[in-house]
Amino acid sequence: MGKENILILNRKNIKSGKLAKLIPEFYELKNVVENNDWHYKENVFNHTLSVLDNLEKTLRNLNKKTEQFLDKKIDGSTRKNLLKIATLFHDIAKKETIVGNNGSTLCPSHEDKGLIKAKTILKRFKLSDKELKFILSIVKNHGLIHKILPSDNQNFQKEFMNFKKRFFHNIYPELILLAFSDTVGSYLIKTHPTEFKSRISFYKKEIKNLPPTNTFGKK
After folding, report:
1. Rg (CA), the chain
2. Is residue 136 part of a domain?
């Protein structure tokens, strides 16, 4: 069986059910319901499409330099399109990792297991090794900034600088854009509104200063 063109992985095709036979794992996320400070009785399928919606809205309002940066290609695909695909798969392993306690849920290590699961699924599509590696790196690391950002994190500056230095010349813009899109529609706005505003403010500042320059820490 031949591999599919990666461009068919888009919101329209997924929501219509057109890809149910090709990527049944994604549709199984309809039955994975999260309930915590970030999600209120929300299934992962709907959440993922919501994050993609938020991302696409954000991409339409970027500065020209960032747009040009995301239009750069990694082999045959733009960074922008690879980011969208990574967004679709960022929570793909929550079915395997979800645990509950007193009505609340968590999905520990879903990023690491998501890398493995996404890799298996994405082998059904035409992707170069570089394109696949790029997508999987976003999937694996998308949760790191969420863990660094809590306003009561006394080690924020050190941890953030290490995070930024680690990814600055690689997938830093993509991680920031995905994390922002993930946060915008979260239930955090109701459970922890002050924290929500703090995070959104941080992301907007970082997004405004994208893309990265050749020298870390200088714009």
Report:
1. 17
2. yes
Whether 216 is covered by a domain: the verdict is no
DSSP conformation letters of 105-158? EE-TTHHHHHHHHHHHHHTTB---HHHHHHHHHHHHHTTHHHHH--TT-TTHHH
Q: Model-level pTM?
A: 0.95
**Residue 53, H or E segment:** helix 44-59
Its domain, for residue 121, covers: 6-208
Domain count of the fold of the chain: 1
Six-digit token string for 120 = 């298996």
Confidence class for position 215, pLDDT limits 50, 70, 90: low
Domain assignment of residue 156, yes or no: yes
**pLDDT tier, 219 (very low <50, low <70, confident <90, very high otherwise):** very low
